[in-house]
Amino acid sequence: IAVADEWAMPIYDDPKWNGGDYYGKDEPLRGMAEALKLVTISSRAPGWMQRTFARDWAKEGADPLASWDNKYKVQDTLDRAGAARAATADANSFLYLVRANQLFRVGQGATLDEGVAKIKAKVLAIPASSDRLLFPEYTTTMLDALKKHGVTTELFVIQGDGGHLDGVTDIAKAGDAIRAFLAK
Questions:
Q1: pLDDT tens for residues 98-107?
Q2: Which of 19, 43, 40, 17 is nearest to 30 (CA)?
Q3: What angle do CA 32, 34, 39 make, to 5 degrees?
Q4: Cα(16)–Cα(22) distance, integer angstroms
Q5: Where are the alpha helices (DSSP H) in the chain?
Q6: Nearest by Cα to 57 from 77, 36, 37
Q7: How far apart, in Å, are the Cα atoms of 162 and each of 24, 141, 166, 170, 181?
Q8: Which of 4, 57, 9, 53 is nearest to 30 (CA)?
Q9: pLDDT greater at residue 112 or residue 17
Q10: Distance CA 69, CA 18 (A)
């Protein structure tokens, strides 16, 4: 809930958001770009950032120590990617996605136990080991609650250092586990 709130704040703080009434006017592109940058930072793990960017400068000879205008490669990449994605995204739609994620509860129960009590299907859980949004421990807690209610569960952990997005970029690692689960 708190991390998702951090994602929304740049949009709320952008004067062009205007409480959500910006259609037909200048859109809150700066706030949207910053929000998308924060999503990327939150959903990736330090290993991925270190491997991808290290401490490289954005431009050769432009030492970030020499001027505020000089950036590291990670900053420049995330700034440019956020701005590009903001141009094709809608801030209000993004805020509704944030709120939906904040409101979600398994089975809409008041507690996890009440929520999972409604689940009868077999469950294959596939967390990413380096996920910093949906920590793998959350998955094992959910699976323990499901087992308590007699639900058949299986677990496959995607190993990697890419963070939350390993669940997208490395889902093929779980291919055999998914096929075997579906064949049962």
A1: 999 999 888 7
A2: 17
A3: 95
A4: 7
A5: 2-13, 29-43, 46-53, 73-86, 91-103, 112-116, 136-148, 166-169, 175-183
A6: 77
A7: 38, 22, 5, 9, 25
A8: 9
A9: 17
A10: 29
Tokens of 32: 């949207």
From the number of C-beta atoms within 10 Å of its C-beta (0-12, 13-18, 19+), residue 60 rates as exposed
The predicted pLDDT at position 103 comes to 92
- Name the DSSP class of 129: T
For residue 14, the SS3 value is coil
Amino acid 98 reads V
Please choose, from the candidates 132, 14, 21, 20, the residue with its C-alpha nearest in 3D space to the C-alpha of residue 82. Answer: 14
Tokens standing for residue 27: 């859109």
User: How many residues appear in the chain?
Assistant: 184
Q: Helix 46-53 and helix 73-86: axis angle, to 10°?
A: 110
Question: What type of residue sits at position 33?
Answer: A
Retrieve residue 50's tokens.
Answer: 């270190």
